[in-house]
Specification:
single chain, 5 helices, two-stranded antiparallel ribbon, alpha+beta
Length: 181
Amino acid sequence: MELINVARPTVAVAWYIMFAAMALHQHPQCGERLLAAEAHYLDYFVEEVRRFYPFFPVVAARTRREFESKGYRFPKGERVLLDLYGTNHDPRLWDEPHTFMPERFRQWKRSPFSFIPQGGGEYLDGHRCPGEWITVELMKVAVVFLSTSVRYSVPQQDLRMSLSRIPALLSSRFLIGNVQI
């Protein structure tokens, strides 16, 4: 069990770094703002990558006790799915949810239930990843490196993403070439 606790966050960070590199490619204006070192823009960019690109489209759990929510009864032991992608793209929670806009996090009021890239709720009693903040910090290091310390090209490829796979995966897996450090 302990080995899975090392492997799972390593994979999550690698996936999010791939998504960050893709976001830099698809939204070059973001790279320009990162180079300009705008205050807090790195934080906004990383959070938007986590909101926009799903590591896990959904997570599964079993109910610990019977309860009712919005007119539906959940029996104890029922398998349930938390729609991470759907919540992070819900137009009731996010303006223009299918547009990549790091600036949205400038005014965002933190909530453990509206922004759930790595699970929902609180760490201690919810279904949220306890390594989430480590993921964020490692992503920041990788984004700074990708935007300031390395040059590379991105060949033509299929960047469609399958949300039916866990973890979500790009068809081409985001390939880069001609890397110069």
